[in-house]
């Protein structure tokens, strides 16, 4: 599951990012709300942990913008403003939950898990399938023609992204954003390296190829 953290306090943001990564989540940390809406579109998070008071663009305004774009991510507002009227304002702005600061990390985890379960069928299919390639989203196990594929976590992340939009072409930069969380230098060839590995595991022993390179554009997954 992908979590976008928008928090201007460097210590709090780092704590959240490290803690959620340790729980197995893919996280991306932003420290202001100015370009956050564009990053929401690129990163496509399942849950957004949103600070109420941000520099340049207020958290409530950003929440309203996200909702106006019909983006299905769940939003959890974090704020030192924890009075009842402030919580009501946050929820009316479109937040799914509101947690006051200071907070216990275990409670934050529990709230994130609860948000992820809400209407989960509308956010993700529990199983993705393209031709005879199947990815189970609960177990994160992939198989082709009934044979299990031994894939790494990053390979599974790439596969989920491409299978969720079969035929859509993803640039190297978009794949970096979604799978690595912008932690890698976009000038490296890390995406190409992983794509070569993935192609070998998925297509090498099959007549019908699924993973394709679109020269100058990126990669897509669909039957030939």
Automatic annotation (TrEMBL):
<dbReference type="Pfam" id="PF00486">
    <property type="entry name" value="Trans_reg_C"/>
</dbReference>
<keyword id="KW-0902">Two-component regulatory system</keyword>
<feature type="DNA-binding region" description="OmpR/PhoB-type">
    <location>
        <begin position="125"/>
        <end position="223"/>
    </location>
</feature>
<dbReference type="InterPro" id="IPR016032">
    <property type="entry name" value="Sig_transdc_resp-reg_C-effctor"/>
</dbReference>
<dbReference type="GO" id="GO:0006355">
    <property type="term" value="P:regulation of DNA-templated transcription"/>
</dbReference>
<dbReference type="GO" id="GO:0032993">
    <property type="term" value="C:protein-DNA complex"/>
</dbReference>
<protein>
    <submittedName>
        <fullName>DNA-binding response regulator, OmpR family, contains REC and winged-helix (WHTH) domain</fullName>
    </submittedName>
</protein>
<dbReference type="InterPro" id="IPR001789">
    <property type="entry name" value="Sig_transdc_resp-reg_receiver"/>
</dbReference>
<dbReference type="GO" id="GO:0000156">
    <property type="term" value="F:phosphorelay response regulator activity"/>
</dbReference>
<dbReference type="InterPro" id="IPR036388">
    <property type="entry name" value="WH-like_DNA-bd_sf"/>
</dbReference>
<dbReference type="GO" id="GO:0005829">
    <property type="term" value="C:cytosol"/>
</dbReference>
<feature type="modified residue" description="4-aspartylphosphate">
    <location>
        <position position="51"/>
    </location>
</feature>
<feature type="domain" description="Response regulatory">
    <location>
        <begin position="2"/>
        <end position="116"/>
    </location>
</feature>
<keyword id="KW-0804">Transcription</keyword>
<keyword id="KW-0805">Transcription regulation</keyword>
<dbReference type="GO" id="GO:0000976">
    <property type="term" value="F:transcription cis-regulatory region binding"/>
</dbReference>
<keyword id="KW-0597">Phosphoprotein</keyword>
<feature type="domain" description="OmpR/PhoB-type">
    <location>
        <begin position="125"/>
        <end position="223"/>
    </location>
</feature>
<dbReference type="Pfam" id="PF00072">
    <property type="entry name" value="Response_reg"/>
</dbReference>
<dbReference type="InterPro" id="IPR001867">
    <property type="entry name" value="OmpR/PhoB-type_DNA-bd"/>
</dbReference>
<dbReference type="InterPro" id="IPR011006">
    <property type="entry name" value="CheY-like_superfamily"/>
</dbReference>
<dbReference type="InterPro" id="IPR039420">
    <property type="entry name" value="WalR-like"/>
</dbReference>
<keyword id="KW-0238">DNA-binding</keyword>
